[in-house]
UniProtKB/TrEMBL annotation:
SUPFAM superfamilies named among the record's database cross-references: Bet v1-like (SSF55961), NAD(P)-binding Rossmann-fold domains (SSF51735)
Pfam family, one: DUF2867
Residue ranges annotated for the NAD(P)-binding domain, each copy included: 27-169
Identification of the protein by name: SDR family oxidoreductase
Superkingdom: Bacteria
Lineage summary: Bacteria, Bacillati, Actinomycetota, Actinomycetes, Kitasatosporales
InterPro entries: ComplexI_NDUFA9_subunit, DUF2867, NAD(P)-bd_dom, NAD(P)-bd_dom_sf
Length: 529
């Protein structure tokens, strides 16, 4: 761990004094789960991860230290296998924003998990839920908060001692709440806001959330209850934006409240200004309609707070901003699949059952080493851009946002290195063969499925070759019409992309021989185009 510069350092004491527990973590590919696993490992525990697609975890720094099994929380058989020999089971999954039936899916998954934990003799279940407002009838809560509360109740009634941790807004580099706050404040020096910016909130640093999660593993067996977990500061969302501006050294923000902005309009507004899509922004905005403030701090009886904790809001912000500035964000909210986005992998040997598969192929010789070419390929997207016709990419991103998609603004977690399963603008990394292949799956709104492959290869003469393949499998007549409507632009977009990637690799290798120019990123001149 990197000490005080790390917004996820929980200062765990380690497990040298007591034997480690066997822990099952669901949601390990998500924001909290991906940070909890290394904390549990560092505390001396053995960790098993349950994942629908185990390959998404293979590039995490901790992957070799944890066991990964394939399964889904709605599949009783796979959950039963994963529970074998487990002492503590962490439930960190939810169907946030996944359509109108997400409450039923959450309910079914929680019941399956509870039943299998009891059958396997698990000693404790730990669940991270949402902080619900005091005195508000459940039927008036947002569907998101109502579902979180119901899942907690199901687990508490499971017959297995359960710890339910209830948090409001989590502040940490890469969290959806932090990204929403960050982009709203940084991009809008003056803004018209909905009335919920006056709601009181008690945020918590991600570092403290993880500390409570790790500490909950060793709670006494007679503890079966929910705990409110919060930081020391209570403030309105408007005050959070003003304090963010102060910590980030931005000019004072002008904020005007407009009561007629509904949750639906608020989510559209958030979706246009921030990287958080409307499908995720809506439940977040709806959750802010009610006051969410801790009513107790009983968690400290079982997981004592070291001096200086829980972290204050300003300190949590400063740590998160430092991680963003230093490009050391370990997990992001966008690691989880976007609701409604295509998730079908590209088959190894596609059987298209008589259907169409449109393909655009590009190939060129590169005057650089395969290593230099791969560095450009793996660095694509985000601030580095897409190496061709920036206006076309920007317009496509805006159109996607207007249609309720993710757009281009998700960017990258790391400027130089990618992991399987993480988001990259409006793509998701489906496959990496380090040094050779990068395959991206489209998550923009499309009438079909799309992939983009980039290869760094050597031919028989030892020359470096760049090979690029865009694939589109249309859905219905609209899919065919879409492909033929954009096909005339392919030579400009995909052809230019191949040429500029080759040039960027050549410039990068040439610059590496000139120390004075070494600081110039290979993408810089491509962006200037």
């Amino acid at each position: 761990m990197s000490g005080q510069d790390d917004d996820t350092d929980t200062h765990t004491a380690g497990g040298a004094d007591r034997p480690g527990l066997r822990c099952l973590v669901t949601g390990a590919s998500g924001y909290i789960g991906g940070r909890l696993v290394p904390e549990l490992l560092d505390a001396g525990h053995l960790v098993r991860c349950l994942a629908r697609t185990p390959g998404k975890l293979r590039d995490h720094p901790w992957a070799s230290r944890a066991e990964t099994v394939q399964g889904d929380v709605t599949d009783a058989e796979s959950v039963a296998r994963a529970m074998q020999g487990v002492d503590v089971a962490y439930y960190l999954v939810h169907a946030l924003g996944a359509g109108g039936d997400f409450e039923e899916r959450d309910r079914r998954a929680a019941r399956t998990f509870a039943e299998q934990a009891r059958a396997a003799g698990v000693r404790r279940v730990v669940y991270l839920g949402g902080l619900t407002p005091a005195g508000v009838p459940p039927h008036t809560l947002s569907p998101h908060l109502r579902s979180r509360a119901e899942v907690g109740d199901i687990l508490l009634r499971s017959g297995v001692p359960t710890t339910v941790l209830r948090a409001a807004v989590i502040i940490g580099s890469g969290s959806a709440s932090f990204e929403m706050l960050r982009y709203l404040t940084e991009r809008l020096p003056a803004m018209v806001t909905p009335s919920w910016v006056g709601t009181r909130i008690q945020p918590i640093a991600v570092r403290d959330v993880l500390r409570y999660l790790v500490g909950s593993a060793r709670m006494p067996p007679d503890v079966n209850r929910a705990f409110d977990i919060c930081g020391p500061d209570v403030m309105t969302y408007e005050q959070m934006m003003r304090r963010y501006a102060a910590v980030a050294r931005l000019p004072r923000r002008l904020i005007l409240r407009v009561p007629m902005l509904t949750p639906g309009l608020s989510s559209r507004w958030i979706g246009l200004v921030t990287p958080v899509p409307a499908s995720l922004a809506r439940p977040l905005a709806e959750s802010l309609r009610h006051e969410v403030v801790c009513r107790e701090h009983d968690i400290a009886r079982y997981v004592p707070d070291p001096p200086g904790t829980p972290l204050g809001f300003d300190e949590a912000l400063a740590l998160a901003l430092r991680r963003v500035r230093d490009a050391e964000v370990s997990t992001r909210w966008s690691a989880a699949a976007v609701p409604g986005a295509p998730s079908d992998p590209l088959p190894t040997d596609p059987d298209w059952a008589g259907g169409s598969l449109y393909t655009d192929r590009r190939c060129c010789t590169v005057d650089a080493s395969p290593t230099a070419l791969w560095q450009v390929i793996e660095g694509i997207g985000g601030e580095n851009g897409w190496y061709s016709f920036p206006l076309a990419w920007a317009v496509r991103g805006w159109l996607d946002r207007l249609a309720g998609g993710v757009g281009l603004r998700r960017g990258r977690r790391d400027a130089a290195r990618l992991r399987v399963g993480e988001s990259l603008d409006f793509w998701r990394v489906e496959e990496i063969e380090r040094g050779r292949l990068l395959r991206l799956r489209a998550e923009m709104r499309l009438p079909g499925l799309a992939w983009l492959e980039m290869y760094a290869e050597q031919d028989q003469q030892g020359r470096t070759r760049y090979r690029q393949r865009a694939l589109f499998h249309p859905h219905g007549l609209l899919g065919h019409l879409y492909w033929w409507s954009v096909a005339p632009w392919h030579a400009l977009v995909f052809g230019g992309m191949a040429r500029n990637i080759a040039r960027a690799a050549h410039r990068a290798e040439a610059a590496s021989a000139r120390p004075a120019d070494a600081a110039d990123h290979p993408a810089a001149s491509a962006r200037r185009r």
